[in-house]
Amino acid sequence: MKSPYEIILQPYITERSAAQSYGDPRIRDEADLVRKYTFLVNKHANKLEIKAAIEAIYNAGKKKKDELIEVTSVRTITMHGKTKRVRSRVSATGRRSDRKKAIVTLAKGQMLEDYGV
Fold this sequence. Notes:
By secondary structure, the chain is an alpha+beta fold. It has helices at 4-7, 15-22, 47-59; strands at 8-11, 36-41, 71-79, 83-86, 92-95, 99-106.
């Protein structure tokens, strides 16, 4: 069994992922907001491992039941590495490594405080 920190590598913060973490702007009530957060994850991790890792990391040290984070869904995307030109050798091409990202949806009204946005 891998540790949660081996599965979740880092938050993936872009303009689009930041907008998803704020929820739908048309919903005024904070209790009805559904927030989505994006993370770079291990290439070999599956959705169940990602869900358990997120809940383990963000629920560590919380005692009250209403403070616990509940993940409702996980969507994964494999981002294939681009082919790039390498200047160290003559007419050589290199390749960036493949990455996997996960979009994690939390239950209504929940948010991650230390996500980085």
